[in-house]
Write a structure and sequence with these properties.
Layout lengths: L1 E4 L13 H10 L8 E6 L3 E9 L8 E3 L3 E7 L4 E7 L8 E2 L4 E4 L5 E5 L3 E5 L3 E7 L4 E10 L1
Antiparallel strand pairs: 1-10, 2-3, 3-12, 4-8, 5-10, 5-12, 6-9, 6-11, 7-8
Length: 147
């Protein structure tokens, strides 16, 4: 997991060849004004999900992980807390290959808060519980890129 400001996102392009495409997309688009929906940037290799999510209590936010895709999550309108637990600390659970997701029971070990102007990157080894907020709606984008 990596948490940082959007101004520093370019420092992470060496981690995956598709990171540069994300940086370019962010620099060439007004993310906060994008309509909700999925935008293909490089087909199923890299896309953006613009969404309005419901704010949840910690107990409602399910831990999840992905085997194939990396998430870069960026909130626009309100701070969003996200739970984090290393997958190695969790019991094996059924994996949904079609949706590239595994869900886990229980609360996360720790929580971070991502403010507008920041991002968080979750890799396959990072179980995360997004959308923890007292706000009723969280406007955000989730970039999904193949590992």
């Amino acid at each position: 997991m990596i948490i940082d400001t959007l101004a520093n996102l370019g420092k992470y392009v060496a981690l995956n060849p598709l990171f540069q495409d994300v940086v370019d997309y962010i620099n060439n688009n007004d993310l906060a004004s994008m309509p909700t929906g999925k935008v293909l940037i490089k087909g199923n290799e890299l896309y953006a999900n613009f969404t309005v999510a419901k704010g949840k209590a910690k107990a409602e936010a399910k831990l999840e992980s992905h085997d194939v895709m990396i998430d870069i999550q960026i909130p626009f309108n309100v701070p969003e807390s996200m739970g984090y637990t290393p997958r190695t600390d969790l019991d094996e659970q059924p994996y949904n290959a079609e949706k590239d997701i595994t869900f886990y029971d229980g609360l996360a070990q720790q929580y971070i808060t991502v403010h507008p102007g920041m991002f968080v990157i979750f890799f396959p080894q990072d179980a995360h519980a997004p959308c923890v907020s007292e706000a009723s709606e969280i406007r955000k984008v989730i970039f999904k890129m193949k590992c």
